[in-house]
Design brief:
Blueprint (H helix, E strand, L loop, with lengths): L5 E5 L5 H12 L3 E3 L6 E5 L4 H11 L6 E4 L2 E4 L6 H10 L6 E10 L5 H14 L11 E9 L1 E8 L10 H5 L9 H12 L9 E5 L5 H8 L3 E5 L15 E5 L4 H9 L6 E4 L10 E4 L17 E6 L5 H11 L3 E12 L5 H12 L3 E7 L7 E8 L1
Parallel strand pairs: 6-7, 9-10, 9-14, 10-13, 11-12, 11-13, 14-15
Antiparallel strand pairs: 1-3, 1-4, 2-3, 5-8, 7-8, 15-17, 16-17
Helix pairs in contact: 9-10
Bound molecules: S-adenosylmethionine.
The site of S-adenosylmethionine (SAM) has 18 residues, from helix 7.
Length: 380
């Protein structure tokens, strides 16, 4: 690997083969270099940096999370980041603000990423460099693995993705209480560029225990949630009006169950749904059994979310089943479970089914997806 042609490629180890296939399709020739871990691998490619980065932006890879040009490979030992600091001293510009992001993958550092960021950042600041944690002009990535520090430096305009480690940032402070499901949704909204100001009313299928519904409600949308299981109603803001609709034969049972809960929404019969009179409406039915006319007139929803533990083709059929309720160009977010691990085949199969009703279908393995992908599409 020469100076300037190395890259750190981030991808989940579970989909490493798929990521390598994508890389081949995007770059043609590249070489694997030493230094793989469960979070990334290192390659060299004889192509201009700008070209490599733009192929990633235009190629919308499903299994590659991020790619960072490698500026240097340095050694470090516990508590001693002098070589890294010296390296940055020579390359950072004093008139450019910076932020350091450390990812610690089984290194010998013996301290956490945050504390290393603070140490190196303060050392640079004491030498006249300017840190800016919110909107830096230069991003410095330091990836520690074994006794090696891989250093990547990028200007703001070249950034594909700001954060190296969604899991560390996701588990900070207040956010600790938010479930993996909610992070998955937040990542999808950001990655697929969903305009949240357009989200006035959302249909959430397979909604229990309710993290997605809560997230949508916090964005200011009305939510119709469909699931046989109850939601955790206490997670919704106290000022939201929640209604649970059940079939007549399940009304008494539902009332008894709700009476034992921390927050006790009103329970009504399913054919008495008044779509004007709620903030969150939970319809207690199995998703695929529900006649869509019960949820009101066609073309009223801005987003259809489906996050069910079902086979990929059943999830896609469910999307088509509900699609008439979506407005023209309304969004679809669909979780595709990869029970059989055949990622490419399932994307093809699911896209084939969705094409009847949807356009602009895109898939992505999001950081908080496990053995699953998230699909995005718009209603035609
Ligand atoms: C992964 S959980 C959904 C998590 C949810 N998105 C959240 O944020 O809390 C899957 C849900 O799908 C529901 N589910 C599975 N098959 C279903 C079906 N045929 N009809 C309705 N719900 C179904 C289950 O009851 C379960 O609550």
């Amino acid at each position: 690997m020469d100076n300037g042609n190395g890259y750190i490629v981030f991808s989940d180890l579970r989909f490493r083969k798929e990521a390598l296939d994508e890389l081949k399709a995007l770059l043609g020739d590249f070489k694997r270099e030493k230094g793989s871990t469960e979070k990334f691998f290192v390659i060299s490619a004889d192509m201009e940096k700008d070209k490599v980065l733009s192929r990633f932006v235009d190629g919308n890879p499903v299994f590659i999370d991020n790619i960072i040009p490698l500026s240097g490979i340095l050694e470090f030992s516990k508590g001693d980041y002098k070589a890294v600091t010296d390296f940055l001293l020579q390359r950072l510009k004093k008139n450019q603000s910076f932020r350091i992001e450390v990812l610690n993958v089984r290194s010998d550092a013996g301290e956490n990423a945050k504390s290393i960021e603070v140490k190196i950042g303060s050392a640079l600041e004491s030498l006249g460099f300017r840190a800016d944690l919110k909107a830096p002009e230069a991003f410095v990535y330091i990836i520690l693995s074994g006794k090696t520090a891989l250093v990547g430096m990028l200007d703001r305009q070249d950034i594909l993705k700001e954060r190296l480690d969604e899991f560390r940032h996701a588990s900070k402070g207040e956010e600790k209480k938010i479930s993996r499901a909610s992070h998955k949704l937040a990542e999808a909204i950001e990655l697929f560029g969903i305009d949240t100001s357009r989200l006035k009313i959302i249909l959430d299928i397979g909604a229990a225990p309710g993290s997605w519904s809560v997230h949508f409600s916090n964005l200011g949308a009305k939510v119709v949630a469909v699931d046989n299981a109850l939601l955790d109603y206490s997670k919704f803001n106290g000022d939201k009006h929640i209604v649970v609709a059940a079939e007549p034969r399940f009304i008494e049972q539902t009332k008894e169950l709700v009476a034992k809960m921390e927050r006790k929404p009103e329970v009504i019969e399913i054919d008495k749904i008044d779509t004007a009179r709620f903030d969150i409406l939970h319809v207690r039915r199995r998703a695929l059994d529900l006649s869509t006319h019960l949820l009101g007139s066609p073309r009223q929803f801005d987003l259809l979310a489906i996050d069910m533990n079902v086979e990929p083709d059943a999830a896609a059929e469910a999307a088509n089943h509900y699609s008439d309720l979506l407005k023209e160009h309304g969004y679809l977010l669909l979780t595709v479970k990869l029970f059989d691990r055949k990622a490419r085949e399932n994307i093809r199969k699911v896209s084939g089914i969705l094409e009847k009703e949807f356009d602009s279908i895109r898939a992505k393995k999001l950081p908080h997806n496990r053995l699953e992908l998230t699909l995005f599409a718009t209603k035609r």
